[in-house]
Please model this.
Amino acid sequence: MKKQALISCSDKSGVVEFARELSELGYHILSTGGTAKLISEAGIPVQEVADYTGFPEMLDGRVKTLNPKIHAGILARRPVEEHMEALKAHDIDPIDIVAVNLYPFEQAIANPNCTFENAIENIDIGGPTMIRAAAKNHESVTVIVSPADYRKVIEEIKGKGEVSAETRLALAKKVFVHTAHYDAMISNYLTSIEGNDVTTRSKFPDSLTRQWVKVQDMRYGENPHQEAAFYRERQVAPGLLAGYVQHQGKELSYNNIADSDAAWEAVRSFDTPACVIIKHANPCGAAIGLDAAEAYSKAFKCDPTSAFGGIIAFNCQVGAEAAEKISKQFAEVIIAPEFTEEALAVFGQKKNLRLLTVAMGHAHNDLDMKRVGGGLLVQTPDTQTVKEDALKCVTKLQPTSAQISDMMFAWKIAKFVKSNTIVFVRDGMTLGVGAGQMSRVDSARIASIKAEEAGISLKGSVAASDAFFPFRDGLDVIVDAGATAIIQPGGSIRDDEVIAAADERGITMVFTGERHFRH
Model:
């Protein structure tokens, strides 16, 4: 029996070279449509599937490979005598290699101008059927869904005369991952349609299916008795932490990655050079500066005790001066879009320190997810950022330009602190952070205590609260500590009482109209 390869690809990258090498290795090439035309024009012998099966393509190409002569050739188990006799009886040759990738459904629906009809036409039927059949019969058939695997297959055939069992199994696994993702996209798309109106789609489909790819198993999770692994999306958009490159240090732990994400999301919200230091998911110091060195020095002053063993993130290049300063303390992870060679040399003396580079970018997760017992909470991410001209001054005293600048800085940081949140700021640096308390008053007290312990005066500072003040007591604690301006969402039934308290205390207060709870 002759050796056969069936090649039919929507992604035609490398397909001509692959077909040529298979042909030179003695394979008879079967193909369809545009792929067959491309291979033929390159001077490579190829037989159209329609000629091979004796049944023409029909229904605008919807039916091409759905034929027993194709699927029997793929599914027949070579070691099973009855299978091989059945092939012989029906004049069918086995198909040894199936190189198929699917209609570009994902690319089609990503186009904002994609119609429902176009989306439906980009649902592949024959392709998934062939590759699933080949993957099921991987003991005899090599199946390829990615052009990246062409070279490995060719090299194994040239070197060993066949594709190894290990490679066939690995490629079969890729098929079921590929088709699972493909079907998930279709399911999510169709079940996001609201009612019968195909032009209206919800962000939350009736059936939500996602796929992530494992990056690593971890020694343990949040605690040593918990097992853990890290997964990333199939395609990580620029700017997201999961696209990190690690340059040195120990393997990242579960907590390292969780805290690194908090640090990176906070620091990349600034347009000027900034540093954010995270400890247990909360910023314990943040600042802007002329460069990484100045931003770090200011951020570290806020809470040197908590910064010990923290995650330090920058949104700018880190050079030797910043590296020298950081190296004087113990840090778990340093993140930046770029390190100079001099900085890498300095950090290289600390072999366990983990260094990550992450590309700057404006992408965000499309959905945030949180597991609950037997369920999943899903929401759009908190990407809201109030504009300066949207601030509403509600007090008699108007803020100065310096106060507005610091309030905007404080508001950005408050968004990344666990609720209830109070953040004191002056001159582009945090002075005290109160996080995660059941009472907003307690958060205000803790923030002022933190500043006092660090030897920082809060006189003339501004303060941010992630949610409204239900009573005036929280405001009084903040003013007693030394703040002269407050930024908060507003929206309490006692707003008038709180505004009157601010006027009474002689401070300025602005409302943002947006809340930033973080649980």
